[in-house]
């Protein structure tokens, strides 16, 4: 009897080991942990040093971070922190990377491999908002993505670092109602479909920059600002699918899913790589206020903490990178472009959505702390696995 009980216990230990390793393994290859991330832009002359930024991110418990270039001071500052970083290959490099595979390999060696794995680089973003905006760059995007991917493959990094590119909402046509959305004819067959075909083969998601702020400003007569801000409102019903939407961001994401399905890529995941709300703008940007920016970002955090999908894809958990960490005073364009930051240049908060200021103690507990940890995927899956495993062990030992 003791022998058989011992055998059962050994089998149980093996089962538990496989169970825990199956939970841990995806973290080594997944490009996004949990649901919440942030963009760390640096087009400014007055923001904190990268080392201070790391301190701020850790205090805020934000694990997923995107940068728009490959600055070595940033890559070095993130070394050993455990923060998960998506590195950007700027648009100006696309033609060279597309035309010359050797240059792509050298770039990956110099800017990715030499910092990995001490710096936890989980992705490379090939350009930003290229398709539909620049014909010459559009012709180079796929080639650059393939050459960078092949470089990671030759260095045995392809199963650890994800290759993506982010699109603006301008690649879509007929986005209302969501189920009616398609890709614009001038980008679909020539550029988008070949790119999506490549990304589907290597397991990359469709990355979208979606701004209810901009969409509302483009048509304020027909869009309820409460619908854009995740506030209580009547919402809309898609006349084709009969699905109800209570916020604009979900509708934008499902528009992307509809366009992907129309193009033949129904199974591809959509990830939001930029979204946010400006806290200040020009006179024509009257909804760019601290109150609206706080409302949007606070409610977005609550939406992501639910860990649920959209009406069209309820089983695919929504993931989003907020734009942005700081107000960036050197950005061109309207005043709103320089005022998307959750923090001011001195590290103080622009408005309160539950994150600490730079000089606040990292041990200070906000009312969102546990929810944030759950939303970022550090607690739920492991606590559930541990509890289930202990129950199984208790029952078998009693038998």
Automatic annotation (TrEMBL):
Pfam family, one: Glyco_hydro_17
Assigned keywords, A-Z: Glycosidase, Hydrolase, Membrane, Signal, Transmembrane, Transmembrane helix
GO CC terms, sorted: plasma membrane
UniProt cross-references to InterPro entries, sorted A to Z: GH, Glyco_hydro_17, Glyco_hydro_17_plant
One Gene Ontology molecular-function label: glucan endo-1,3-beta-D-glucosidase activity
Membrane spanning residue stretches: 377-397
The EC number(s) this enzyme carries: 3.2.1.39
Organism domain of life: Eukaryota
A GO biological process held by the record: carbohydrate metabolic process
Database matches in SUPFAM superfamilies: (Trans)glycosidases (SSF51445)
Entry keyword Signal: yes
Position of the signal peptide: 1-31
Reactions this protein catalyses: Hydrolysis of (1->3)-beta-D-glucosidic linkages in (1->3)-beta-D-glucans
Protein family according to the UniProt entry: Belongs to the glycosyl hydrolase 17 family.
Name listed for the protein in its UniProt record: glucan endo-1,3-beta-D-glucosidase
Species: Spinacia oleracea (Spinach)
């Amino acid at each position: 009897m003791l022998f058989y009980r011992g055998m059962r216990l050994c089998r149980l230990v093996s089962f538990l080991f496989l169970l825990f390793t199956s939970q841990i393994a995806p973290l080594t290859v997944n490009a996004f942990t949990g649901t919440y991330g942030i963009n760390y832009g640096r087009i400014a002359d007055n923001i904190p040093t990268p080392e201070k930024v790391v301190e701020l991110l850790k205090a805020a418990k934000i694990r997923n971070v995107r940068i728009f270039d490959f600055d070595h001071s940033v890559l070095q500052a993130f070394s050993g922190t455990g923060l998960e970083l998506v590195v950007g290959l700027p648009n100006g490099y696309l033609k060279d990377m597309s035309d010359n595979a050797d240059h792509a390999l050298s770039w990956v060696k110099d800017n990715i491999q030499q910092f990995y794995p001490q710096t936890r680089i989980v992705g490379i973003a090939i350009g930003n908002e290229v398709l539909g905006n620049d014909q010459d760059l559009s012709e180079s995007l796929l080639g650059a993505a393939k050459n960078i991917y092949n470089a990671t493959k030759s260095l045995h990094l392809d199963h650890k670092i994800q290759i993506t590119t982010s699109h603006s909402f301008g690649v879509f046509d007929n986005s209302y109602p969501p189920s009616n959305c398609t890709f614009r004819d001038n980008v679909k067959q020539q550029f988008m479909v070949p790119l999506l075909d490549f990304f589907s083969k290597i397991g990359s998601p469709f990355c979208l920059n979606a701004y209810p702020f901009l969409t509302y400003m483009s048509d304020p007569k027909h869009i309820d600002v409460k619908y854009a801000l995740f506030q209580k409102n009547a919402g809309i019903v898609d006349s084709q699918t009969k699905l109800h939407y209570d916020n604009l961001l979900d509708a934008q994401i499902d528009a992307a899913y509809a366009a992907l399905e129309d193009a033949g890529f129904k199974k591809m995941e959509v990830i939001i790589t930029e979204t946010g709300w400006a806290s200040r703008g020009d006179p024509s940007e009257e909804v760019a206020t601290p109150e609206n920016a706080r409302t949007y970002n606070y409610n977005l955090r609550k939406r992501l903490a639910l860990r649920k999908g959209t009406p069209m894809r309820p089983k695919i958990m929504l993931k989003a990178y907020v734009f942005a960490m700081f107000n960036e005073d050197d950005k061109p364009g309207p005043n709103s472009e320089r005022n998307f930051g959750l923090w001011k240049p001195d590290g103080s908060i622009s408005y309160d959505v539950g994150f600490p200021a730079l000089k606040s103690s990292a041990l200070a507990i906000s009312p969102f702390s546990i929810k944030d940890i759950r939303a970022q995927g550090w607690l739920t899956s492991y606590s559930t696995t541990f509890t289930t495993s202990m129950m199984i062990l208790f029952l078998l030992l009693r038998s």
